[in-house]
């Protein structure tokens, strides 16, 4: 076990019958680092995140989060981590404030009302605190989802498509906010995204998945150089379209 690792994944594998959704994934995310988890549709990103959260049991392999083996002691890790995904809707009929109170309670957050007020201020939620979650715009929902993800001051944040369906201005606001937040908090972030410019801006290191396997990794600049491309989007397309033999690209 690496003591200063936020996540250590060793031989992580998930099979559904004949389909191997995640195949022998191995990586170590250091504490305080922001890494990107990339891959085309069906590459295995969501399955990986679900195993990191302990929602899915791996078919093989092991996940250690903040020093805790997720198979044996996941609740010790879960209170110190959090996640946000556009595919997980907050209860629609509860107001934003009620939702945040429920999650604050679930995570046993001390002085919950003060924490909610603090998040409402920094994430510009004050005007919508008493609106039902089901009545919010996509941008408002994203800010509420981030507030939910931060309610327990996590040391590790798993973000699945944090800016999907946001207009460019709101997306930029969320990215700037995340940059500030991680500087202040020292939180480690694993970010799954299809937005390559976002990944180049936020992530110091990128894991590229294809058909469940880790096929390339490195900093965005290293990957761009290794593939002889101008940007990460072109690297992504090379990998997705098999324009380079994957064996050449593996770090
Ligand atoms: N419950 C399931 N039963 C069977 N197959 C599944 C299940 N969940 C995922 N898969 C398969 O596992 C593979 C990986 O899916 P996953 O959702 O992890 O990919 P992804 O990279 O998150 O894709 P996307 O970018 O489209 O969200 C796919 O082939 C998918 O069809």
Report on the architecture of this protein:
The protein has 251 residues and is of the alpha/beta class. It has a domain at 85-153. Helix content is 39%, strand content 25%. The chain has helices at 45-52, 70-78, 96-106, 112-122, 138-150, 168-185, 196-202, 220-227, 232-240, 246-249; strands at 5-16, 19-30, 34-38, 60-65, 68-69, 81-84, 156-160, 188-192, 205-210, 213-218. A 6-stranded mixed beta sheet has the order 6-7-8-3-9-10, with helices on both faces. The relative contact order is 0.16. The model has no long low-confidence stretch (mean pLDDT 91). The site of adenosine-5'-triphosphate (ATP) has 11 residues, from strand 2 and helix 1. The site of adenosine-5'-triphosphate has 11 residues, from strand 2 and helix 1. Residues 7-236 form the ABC transporter domain. Belongs to the ABC transporter superfamily. It holds the Pfam family ABC_tran. GO terms for molecular function: ATP binding; ATP hydrolysis activity. It comes from Teichococcus coralli.
Core attributes:
AAA+_ATPase, ABC_transporter-like_ATP-bd, 10 helices, six-stranded mixed beta sheet, binds adenosine-5'-triphosphate, four-stranded antiparallel beta sheet, 251 residues, 10 strands, ATP-binding, alpha/beta
């Amino acid at each position: 076990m690496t003591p200063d690792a936020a996540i250590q994944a060793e031989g992580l594998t998930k099979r559904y019958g004949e389909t191997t959704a995640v195949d022998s994934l191995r990586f170590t995310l250091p504490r305080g680092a922001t890494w990107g988890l990339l891959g085309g549709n069906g590459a295995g990103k969501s399955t990986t995140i679900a195993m990191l959260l302990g929602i899915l049991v791996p078919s093989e392999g092991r996940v250690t989060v903040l020093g805790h083996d997720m198979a044996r002691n996941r609740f010790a890790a879960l209170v110190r981590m959090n996640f946000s995904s556009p595919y997980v809707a907050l209860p629609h009929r509860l107001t934003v404030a009620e939702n945040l109170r429920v999650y604050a309670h679930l995570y046993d957050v001390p002085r919950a009302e003060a924490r909610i007020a603090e998040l409402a201020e920094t994430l510009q939620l004050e005007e919508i605190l008493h609106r039902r979650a089901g009545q919010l715009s996509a941008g408002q929902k994203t800010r509420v989802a981030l507030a939910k993800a931060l309610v327990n001051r996590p040391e590790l944040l798993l973000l699945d498509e944090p800016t999907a369906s946001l207009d460019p201005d709101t997306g930029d606001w969320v990215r700037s906010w995340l940059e500030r937040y991680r500087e202040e908090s020292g939180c480690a972030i694993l970010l799954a995204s299809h937005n390559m410019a976002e990944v180049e801006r936020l992530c110091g290191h990128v894991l590229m998945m294809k058909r469940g396997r880790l096929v390339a990794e490195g900093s965005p600049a290293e990957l761009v150089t290794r593939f002889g491309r101008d940007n990460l989007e072109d690297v992504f397309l090379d990998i997705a379209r098999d324009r380079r033999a994957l064996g050449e690209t593996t770090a």
